[in-house]
Amino acid sequence: MGRFQYSLLEQAARVPGKPRHKTREVRIGTVVIGGNNPIAVQSMTTTDTHDVEATVQQIHALEAAGCELVRVTVPKPEDAHALTRIRERIGIPLICDIHFDYKMALAALDHPIDKIRINPGNIGGPERFRQVVRKAKSRGIPMRIGVNAGSLERELCEKYGFPCPPAMVESALRYIEIAEEEGYYDIVVSLKSSDVLVAVEAYRLYAQLADYPTHIGITEAGKPPYAVTKSAAGLAPLLLDGIGDTIRVSLLGDPVPEIAAAFDILQATQRRVRRPELIACPTCGRLAIDLEKIVAELEKRLAGKRLPIKISVLGCVVNGPGEAREADIGIAAGNGKGMIFRNGEIIRRVEEAEIVDALMEEIARWEQENQHRLPPQRDAEGLGRRRLPLISS
Hints:
By secondary structure, the protein is α/β, with parallel strands linked by helices. The protein has two domains: about 25-270, Alpha-Beta Barrel (TIM Barrel); about 275-375, Sulfite Reductase Hemoprotein, domain 1, CATH 3.30.413. Helices cover about 40% and strands about 20% of the residues. It has helices spanning about 5-10, 50-65, 75-80, 85-90, 100-110, 125-140, 155-160, 165-180, 195-205, 225-240, 255-270, 290-300, 320-325, 355-370; strands at about 25-30, 30-35, 40-45, 70-75, 95-100, 115-120, 145-150, 185-190, 215, 245, 275-280, 310-315, 330-335, 335-340, 345-350. The chain has an eight-stranded parallel β-sheet. Strand 5 (about 95-100), helix 5 and strand 6 (about 115-120) form a beta-alpha-beta unit. The protein is elongated, with a radius of gyration of 24 Å. Mean pLDDT is about 90; it is low at about 390-393.
């Protein structure tokens, strides 16, 4: 016997990944989150909401980038008065963000909005919250109970010493109970902090206690590119744990780049695969082909394809063959030639100049052969060679 317990390896799962946390479904306009629905990507405008033209223009830019839910702030009566005009001109669900003044929540609910966000730390207490819940219930509008570490109730800060994960979760649970007392269950929960560790542990703790769907994000992440890295550091552990039903990457400035960042994080964690996964080696000294040119051409020709396929393009003989075998389709190349793999088997050899055309041919063949096994929803969770759903022969 060696000093390592090899039996643990034999018992370990061959295919990694945790199932999603089972949550209730909540409909937000045309989008349903929770349950087994795709994790929705959302953002928030940076305009003055009462400036209808500027707000609609920014929402259209977000829609074009792939945004699926959009939030606007409603701090003043003129902002609430603009909501109907905004909603009439956009194609995605509209969420209203309320802080401090519960009357703004009541005013917003007079308009055709799709969801409202309330911060329990500054809405003015349980009774005012009840008024908002009652009106939301009567209108059939869902609500996000959005706890934020920076505005947590003073009582909970004193109880726990500071805005720690248990304090944040208790805030959310208290307000969930109030809503449930009113017979209201169209609830989404968020537990945001600018501290990655606090946010991650708060969501993990909440997931042990409740099943309302979660909006996950790292608040006030800052300016890109660091803010994207910080958001990924916080969101990836949650997504890998199966937590999260809608996601926002908060970036300073123009919100449009938030959408690509969010989808990249979902793609990397295999929680929502919307395009081919292209794997390429880091161009070390062993490189023996023009890998950058090949990858650039592949990216160009794969643009717009919604296939959950993993493609490996390796340019050396060290890791190339092994990595290529692990992809749905791969190539290991060097010295002007390449070997193409499908499902781990070598199927052909080509010249360097033919690599891109050959890979595109194999991708088209893969799509044709697997069409009947791909789910109708072109977004998939980790769909690939080892995760295609089993079918009876």
